[in-house]
């Protein structure tokens, strides 16, 4: 018995000495590697120990998110916002206790103006239908205030697109394909679809990368495809085309896009054939003629002289020639992959560009002709309600719906290693995303969002969200006082020569 214990102990001792020796040898090897390499100054000056810096910075991301960051602190979306989405996806009551954890003092905070006699539940109306593209063969009428913003199949995985497609159908909202073409997964759920034409014309291109009318007709033949959107730019990367890293270009994605498999897919930084507003209007007219469906443009606004130029050109051609809608992206919009300087500091934020765009269209008597769809960090009801007050007819969200799919903001969309299976083509990781479960969450998120925007509208004394106007929201200033949005952005007068074109209601 004692002999047995002694021999086990001696084996353990040998193992320990072996492991210790291996560890010391490992440290010596790392020391030599670090000391002799020349691309990392910290490791060269502090061999081995310098490696902990990188390990701790990686771990820091995790610790900050779960242990140290306060509810309202993180970027791009803080925990309170993400948790609101999560509660909304569960379809249960979205009430919280005790009081708001949101500071209402920072300049820019919107405060909605509740009225003394809010709308009684019995008087509340359903969100009104809004028609897009009255002059085309198949106009589109939609009640859906809140919709799924452009995210391409490629940036998103198969189960993510499937869950969004089914969820959109259940909630009655539309889904934008993004620039990666139309896949069977978009169609699967039966929802309304907006087909986006990016600068590489994925899905509707010929072998030279030019727009192909036959393919356009094929896409338009799907009844579900309700509108076409020409993407000029995106808030996260204005002046830069789409970027799909090589590891995400699978055979299926390559086939749908019309590009080679396994090679990074970089689209041109603008439509090569659109050099000015006249050519833009030509392209709108062409796609509308070929498809018979409403055609709009998507852009983030920085310089804005071209918008007035476009309005003048529209009047010269006749108001039928206008884009049927304008999707305005905020400079702080999201993306699968983009260079940081473009993401951070190029393109105006929606808070400034949305009232401005709406006013330009109003000034030219085109406010009702060109519907405005606003996107950019609108993931909770107050942000959506603000956008409606400021001048949007519809609001789109990309990252809100990613949260509904289970996104944990790990910021790995460009790496094919998304831990929640949303932006990866790794089958093992996709296993975590069950479209059957997530479609219900997508639908619940959308429905609860609309419901709570309605709650804000009723508190302001109007029957439904589309009746919200600028005077219903005040914006906190740096003096601490709030000023009504209609005082900050007063509606300009309609230019006299255009007063006849269309009655501006909003
Ligand atoms: C993963 C991902 C992929 C995207 N792909 C596209 C795209 O293909 N085309 C496009 O116009 N915008 C794309 N966007 C931008 C969104 O459509 C949207 O305009 C922007 O993210 C702002 O909305 P959000 O703040 O709700 O995310 C993408 C965004 C994300 C997060």
Can you give me a brief rundown of this structure?
With 506 residues, the protein is α/β, with parallel strands linked by helices.
Protein model, in words:
Strand 2 (130-132) and strand 3 form a beta hairpin. The protein has helices at 2-36, 41-45, 51-68, 79-90, 158-171, 184-188, 213-220, 251-257, 277-291, 305-317, 340-345, 350-363, 381-390, 399-404, 427-430, 435-459, 485-488, and strands at 110-112, 130-132, 140-142, 146-148, 174-176, 192-197, 225-231, 243-244, 265-266, 295-300, 325-329, 371-375, 394-397, 473-476, 482-484. The chain is globular and about 105 Å long. Strands 4-13-12-11-10-7-6-5 form an eight-stranded parallel β-sheet. Helix 4 (79-90) packs across helix 16 and helix 13 (381-390) crosses helix 16. The N and C termini lie far apart (92 Å). By secondary structure, the protein is α/β, with parallel strands linked by helices. The protein has 17 helices and 15 strands. 45% of the residues are buried. The chain binds flavin mononucleotide (FMN). The site of flavin mononucleotide (FMN) has 28 residues, from helix 14.
Please write out the topology.
Blueprint: H1 2-36, H2 41-45, H3 51-68, H4 79-90, E1 110-112, E2 130-132, E3 140-142, E4 146-148, H5 158-171, E5 174-176, H6 184-188, E6 192-197, H7 213-220, E7 225-231, E8 243-244, H8 251-257, E9 265-266, H9 277-291, E10 295-300, H10 305-317, E11 325-329, H11 340-345, H12 350-363, E12 371-375, H13 381-390, E13 394-397, H14 399-404, H15 427-430, H16 435-459, E14 473-476, E15 482-484, H17 485-488
Parallel strand pairs: 4-13, 5-6, 6-7, 7-10, 10-11, 11-12, 12-13
Antiparallel strand pairs: 1-14, 2-3, 8-9, 14-15
Helix pairs in contact: 4-16, 5-16, 13-16
This protein binds flavin mononucleotide (FMN).
